[in-house]
Amino acid sequence: MKKKKKSFPKKPALVLTAAALLLVGSTVGSTRAALTYYSENYSAQMNMQSIGVSLLENDKVVSSRDYVSNNEWKGTSEGTLLTNLLGKDETFTPGKKYNEAISVKNSGTIDTFVRVIITKSWQDKEGKKHTELSPDLIELNFLTDNGWQVANAQSTRERTVLYYTKAVAAGDTAPALSDTLRINPSIASDVTKHVTKSEKGKTITYTYKYNGYTFHIDAEVDAVQTHNAKDAIKSAWGVDVNVSDDETTMSLQ
Fold first, then answer.
1. What is the mean pLDDT of the chain?
2. What are the two backbone dihedrals, phi and then psi, of residue 81, each rounded to the nearest 5 degrees?
3. Whether residue 244 has pLDDT greater than 90
4. b/e map of 181-200 (b: 16 or more CB within 10 Å)?
5. Could you tell me which of 14, 35, 5, 11 has the C-alpha nearest to residue 183?
6. Nearest to 33 by CA among 247, 222, 175, 244
7. Shortest CA distance to 108 belongs to which of 184, 148, 58, 50?
């Protein structure tokens, strides 16, 4: 984006393509892999027909995965987040907080423990990720006073790993792990000034660092049944946890 000095606005707006801005993927595809791997080790204790998980955004199902039989699943493992982020004719505004409540529903018939991995990134028009651009400017406000716990040792600036520390009963939905999303307004002031001299005089233009890029949020959900949960979670997720005797709560070691 380039503007002459005489037309440079007092509060510069970051121009992003709205359609591309909202193309944010989510997936629960890893759920199948985790559960399949788990069943190979604990087939005697697991009823595959009973397992299921759904990803919800603002109380609406975005994607789901429920085991049927004979290694067949129902539901769609991929969905799109933020499709209803903006109102009609509304323009996305950096600094504004938008409702973004992400949660998980146990759509199966047995109790489970769940994990969610949130990944934030900036991508160009070709879909290439640019790690030099700060994912910290993509501010998804996490809620950790309702049973969700961030695994700091497993998280990075781009990726946040969260575990719900209580078993989710069949048919129940865990509390939301987030409530709002905003893009830090400093993104609109990250500009480079260029001065060009010619016979006609001096021309000043400004280039926005994030112009032409879109932000992306990926949500990945995993579920493991509560029976023999300590060993099951170690096998499926590769992490050590403490589980209560009644297998209704867990905590990271």
1. 77
2. -85, 160
3. yes
4. bbbeeebbebbeeeeeeeee
5. 14
6. 222
7. 50
- Measured CA to CA, the distance from residue 225 to residue 92 in angstroms comes to 40
Cα(70)–Cα(170) distance, integer angstroms? 21
Q: Distances in Å between the alpha carbon of 171 and those of 52, 58, 179, 227?
A: 10, 17, 22, 17
Please give the single-letter amino acid code of residue 95.
Answer: G
Given a contact cutoff of 8 angstroms between Cβ atoms, the answer to whether 117 and 64 are in contact is no
Determine which of 3-7, 59-63, 225-229 has the lowest per-residue pLDDT on average: 3-7
- Report the alpha-carbon distance of residue 118 to residue 99 in Å, rounded: 16
Burial of residue 114, with CB atoms counted within 10 A of its CB: 0-12 exposed, 13-18 middle, 19 or more buried: buried
3-52 residue pLDDT tens:
443 333 332 222 222 222 333 333 333 343 444 444 343 433 444 557 78
